[in-house]
Amino acid sequence: TGSSYGTHFRVSTFGESHGGGVGCIIDGCPPRIPLTESDLQFDLDRRRPGQSRITTPRKETDTCRISSGVSEGMTTGTPIHVFVPNTDQRGLDYSEMSVAYRPSHADATYDMKYGVRSVQGGGRSSARETIGRVAPGALAKKILKQFAGTEILAYVSQVHHVVLPEELVDHENLTLEQIENNIVRCPNPEYAEKMIAAIDAVRTKGNSVGGVVTCIVRNAPRGLGTPVFDKLEAELAKACMSLPATKGFEFGSGFAGTFLTGLEHNDEFYTDENGRIRTRTNRSGGIQGGISNGEIINMRVAFKPTSTIGRKQNTVTRDKVETEMIARGRHDPCVVPRAVPMVEAMVALVLVDQLMAQYAQCHLFPINPELQEPLQIEQPQNATAL
Amino acid sequence: TGSSYGTHFRVSTFGESHGGGVGCIIDGCPPRIPLTESDLQFDLDRRRPGQSRITTPRKETDTCRISSGVSEGMTTGTPIHVFVPNTDQRGLDYSEMSVAYRPSHADATYDMKYGVRSVQGGGRSSARETIGRVAPGALAKKILKQFAGTEILAYVSQVHHVVLPEELVDHENLTLEQIENNIVRCPNPEYAEKMIAAIDAVRTKGNSVGGVVTCIVRNAPRGLGTPVFDKLEAELAKACMSLPATKGFEFGSGFAGTFLTGLEHNDEFYTDENGRIRTRTNRSGGIQGGISNGEIINMRVAFKPTSTIGRKQNTVTRDKVETEMIARGRHDPCVVPRAVPMVEAMVALVLVDQLMAQYAQCHLFPINPELQEPLQIEQPQNATAL
Amino acid sequence: TGSSYGTHFRVSTFGESHGGGVGCIIDGCPPRIPLTESDLQFDLDRRRPGQSRITTPRKETDTCRISSGVSEGMTTGTPIHVFVPNTDQRGLDYSEMSVAYRPSHADATYDMKYGVRSVQGGGRSSARETIGRVAPGALAKKILKQFAGTEILAYVSQVHHVVLPEELVDHENLTLEQIENNIVRCPNPEYAEKMIAAIDAVRTKGNSVGGVVTCIVRNAPRGLGTPVFDKLEAELAKACMSLPATKGFEFGSGFAGTFLTGLEHNDEFYTDENGRIRTRTNRSGGIQGGISNGEIINMRVAFKPTSTIGRKQNTVTRDKVETEMIARGRHDPCVVPRAVPMVEAMVALVLVDQLMAQYAQCHLFPINPELQEPLQIEQPQNATAL
Amino acid sequence: TGSSYGTHFRVSTFGESHGGGVGCIIDGCPPRIPLTESDLQFDLDRRRPGQSRITTPRKETDTCRISSGVSEGMTTGTPIHVFVPNTDQRGLDYSEMSVAYRPSHADATYDMKYGVRSVQGGGRSSARETIGRVAPGALAKKILKQFAGTEILAYVSQVHHVVLPEELVDHENLTLEQIENNIVRCPNPEYAEKMIAAIDAVRTKGNSVGGVVTCIVRNAPRGLGTPVFDKLEAELAKACMSLPATKGFEFGSGFAGTFLTGLEHNDEFYTDENGRIRTRTNRSGGIQGGISNGEIINMRVAFKPTSTIGRKQNTVTRDKVETEMIARGRHDPCVVPRAVPMVEAMVALVLVDQLMAQYAQCHLFPINPELQEPLQIEQPQNATAL
To answer: Which chain C residue shows the shortest CA-CA distance from B9?
Structure first.
């Protein structure tokens, strides 16, 4: 069934744009991890609609409530239920859409698949479902950070024709603050302004633009990813491409790598000052043979321009009559600023699931210290689980 | 665990480059489908090493043997075991590699993950594992064709700097013959020659190049893909990105779509002469909201230049000593010609699995004829299962 | 992870005895099925605590709320979220138990497994989790009844030493009314009285008794169950043995069958008046070779005497000090009356999941009318999905 | 799909009685475990047909071959393929059965499910499929023994009316030798003779008898089992009830426990000389709240009398004509002697899967030493993985 992700750290989500609420169950979470609603709320607030003029004006606080799986501030290892009520629903905006299909949206295909559809706000196809991803993603980030020192950071690297040159971002030292310091979440202030202007340019004309989100992972443990079908890049591709409005995924050299020869493309190995095996370059994007090699994992996700636009378009009605429509309602002129915490969440869910898979299979018995490293960074002595 | 794909039509694969043999189990296959080894051998022969001067010279017939799940030429619905023996193994080629890591290959990360590795021929990371994908892919293609008239065709659209312009390929009428009519599997003869020359240019210097495989699906039933995590493009992305040497995946407008506005990017709906809802353009690549809309599905997969090259490179040995190496053994100068049947197989496995999922959930009860279509094309009256 | 059941009709549950609430997500439900909270409430009320003097006095209405997956009274095919708030929590009852382990209860093993525990009401080990089973079970029953005319009925067949002779129950004509006509849910009034007396006898002394629930399935379609690991009896055994307090499962002749020879035990085949293949006897319990044969499926589930008793017992505290305890709080003197709807629910979840699996694999193509029957009973012409 | 078991240690099986061969793929096995064919052959020989006069005379050596997943005598962590050819096939024995259905066998229901059937030897319903269980079970036993000192021993405790009194078997000190010292695998010589006589009595008359296999687990780590659906007893029930010819499963006090009151049934806790929490009695059968508590796990599995008997029975043909038949071919007069290694194997597969699940979820972070114990017993210093 389509609404669960993960084998060990398993997230099952529910909820539509205009139902009672949205949320998820997190099953298989390690026990004794300090967890409160505020741990989840930070990223939910980065995802929230109505956070700036370049996002949909829908007013939701997206305040989450945890109603199981936590006792006295600690995860108990039993399923964690997270619920966010829908408070600012305007069903009327969608009356027109109960008749006509929005071009390139999910309206038509949900009807084709299910023969029925919750029309308001796009029902299950609404980006509100990503609340059920971002909340557990925040917990996954916390586990990865605590266990292995892993950090996951995404940022906007392209809006329409404004492309942030890769060399202007130092992935070794990129910080959350740099990303959050503007409403488009581009860590380079100069390009951020250009991007905001590009969004403003279409927003005021009821149109929309797409863009690209780049995501990096620092301090990923070595050995994550399970060939041959659950290779790390395959799971990352699935996880990111399951987000609404995506059109492409690439990691490391990506499509551009196809223009190089093997000699140009290969990342030569060397041994660093700590005696660790490293790669001089990182066109592999931190993953080789489907398995993380400890270098920075970097990937890019293409998001199309939002389909719902306030412009006249030819389309058909549910009973196949050709018509014109102008979409009402509140929509993102560009999804990428709010997609940043969504990509981070999906990457975190992949990594924590693969970390637990690797721990179960390859660390059940003592590792081979000649070829392997501990997965876990040094823990302060009196650490509770976290 | 990483070596199974699919929920309903489940493929589990086994085998390394230099073990006893390679193959798979197919579980959940519909019963009473005529199946013989020759049904699988056609695509295995298109995948085979040693098929032309621009592929690895390793001599394997890759003749497959079915030893269960078929009775009197018909699938019985029970697990189908397909086995291909390894006959042309040269372990010696890899003695050097038992010491030094091939840059950008899986040698190092398999050691990091498992603490042990079957060195010869890259062990499980060898492309020979794809036998376990291509054989069941052939059966999946047969089921899709018979049930829904679905056709899956992949071809090489780029080798190194030689990029086949999209407008030179008519996806409506592309045929297998056009693809198979040259050793690089590019349906345009002129560009095929350029591509072969580009491969020859590096092959003779022990180097390698990458490229892109484009894959299309005609007559995909509407409604395939299971939001929110198993959206069709997410499953296709995972399936294709699980193939060896991949670096990127995109569908429909892909990364290029991010340069368009919503108004430019949207595919307007219209009603065709048969009263069916169609899209005027297909930047959606046949998938909207994670669900197939019946238009041609098109996607592109980026393959890096082969990592194993006969050129001097700096690397390290298993015990972390910096060294130089020139890879011995027989390797593909460019993987894309042999990747064509591999991409087709993975796309087929995704579609047959999603077809069975859609049939189970949304066709258990009578469909809503106003919004839905039967999944199955008209069957000739006396058809056995196939 | 442990809190999901089913592959096609997938139920994920959450919630503890004293958290915010209990419930589930149902994913993969066929669309366009009329569904309201009252469809679920009937069985939730049969499960509810405080329903009679022979169940725990805890006062909960267990009123459920559906907050997604239904639009205008119809399932949309997207995840259905069902929530029941905990309203009558007495945490104080359990202060003693936060110190001492209740013998034969889950207190100790949850600590051993997770290293932490939601103490009040037994946390996740409380029978309140079964709300997340009984609600989706009611929907599964509705689907099975509508699609195949399948009926699932469980009843109490033993309480302590009071054993209802099998021959006193006519499985062909047993009705829900006969079962619900007394508070112990035994369809034979005379034995019901004896059973109630047996419960009263221990209840007044703070003790408890166990019993057996028998469950039958009429009109199960033929062909359900997926050898070799997901044989129907294996899935039924798992589903029933996952309920709290179970100690044994048997079907058809069960353990008693081991005292017969093959000749005595075998069910001879014959052809009935409608030309259908039937068995003269039904020691196979409606399942042969792991697959339903269309005869009545019958099984028995053993439930131990409730562990939490108001009697002095030797035990240890969480810090391993030997102590004596008398369990406070409100507990069932005998679980079987409330276990009846729980067993029905789990059997329904198994059957609907296997029905969808069978439909996907073996009915994708036209069946072989010589050997197979349609899964679905004749539908009235204008039937919506239901 | 029905032919895979396990999430972490995943076994997928294939093969019918009269196909090319039978076997399995083991995916997710920890790496660097010494493994040779002889490790598996010991238990395959205990399962083999033709091992004594009280088993089917079919002559198969069941010699297994490992063709992947092992390099230089060590598991590599990649899928392990185990194959056993079918050498002694007598298709002719089954010509009659290609026409008539054997009463209580799987002949009829396989036709009902799949609409086709590999008739010879019962095809996939043949006990030969259990080769694909016993081989991986042997590896699972080896892992459990090495990692946690866990021992799994099953024995025949009943044949027809000959019931071995429980008190005559000391589960603390039972040995494999006691079990293997007679052809019926009953550890009590006196009762073994009675059981052999009971089998001989029916064997000579072409009839069959059933029986019960008891299985115990010593030194099971505490904390295995994943509430609420994958409770240890639920997984054990499914695994055992998926074996051919089973009719019932019970653990600890089982069905007999339903005749006790809570006070009589509860196992009181105490603290032993090592400061470990223990239970005075073990009616819980080593499992409480679905989780192992470290005490001996004990369970009993009921096997019906073999359905295929050399006696005249009424049945019907495939085209529904009533007829009489006497089953030809070679069959077990009583399955329990050969079922002993099959039950052990399934219990081992459950425990290793739950061990890896527990390790991944609850031992990723430092355990809570006040309430938890390490899963792993002390390892000798220079141990390789094993």
So the answer is: C361
